[in-house]
Amino acid sequence: MCLYLCLMIDNKLIHSPARRRSGRLIVIVSRDEIMVSRVKHNLSPEGFQILVIPDYTDIFKIARSRNIRMIITDQAVDHPDEATVFRALHHKYNCPILAIVHRPEYKVEHFINAGIDDYVFDNGNEIAFMEHIRALLMRHGVHVLKNRVEESNYFIKDICINPLSREVKRGNEELNLTSIEFDILLALAHKAGSIVSRNEIHRLVWGDNAFYNERMIDVHINKLRKKIEKDPSKPQLLLSVRGAGYKLNV
Question: Looking at domain 21-151, which of 3.40.50.2300, 1.10.260.40, 3.30.365.10, 3.30.450.40 is its CATH number?
Fold first, then answer.
């Protein structure tokens, strides 16, 4: 009876340290559903279990009962003493920690001083994003299939771009793009968050030897914007940068 009572706390089953499971658990501390879906899409097929929590309240309870392979923390999740939390997780449970940084100037120095293992800017580049996760897992002795990163999708806000199937979706809704529109969107996704000139878009989509027509690119961009923007008159995803080109806003 005593053992049963010790294991049932707040109506939840809590394993003692001696019974810690050896599974492939990744804990994500975030409220960002899009980022979570990206990690699940890439790592769930490899046998990783993804546990999502909104803050650090239960992180030590989880660490005591489960064998955490990695903790991914979101800059948007604030804690009054993150540094103490990170150091304790390292010291007691040897949990590698990866921080997701959405704005280059925000909290990078803070995360480094707090003792995280690595950080990555979430600029929509799916390949770079997953490479950081896989590299950190491998440094801590966790086997991952590196070639899966080549099949990764791009996630821009609530838009998912699949380079292999050439499909673009918002949630479960497929957006019907022409071949040229898809190629333009993919070219911008490769450099999400950065300005891409009209000349570079032309080179990436049509090639170096094709006739360059700036107005033609603007026409395709306008058509693309009508399909991916919720309100094309007030674009939030595909932005014009006066005198410079276009960029996907991440």
Answer: 3.40.50.2300
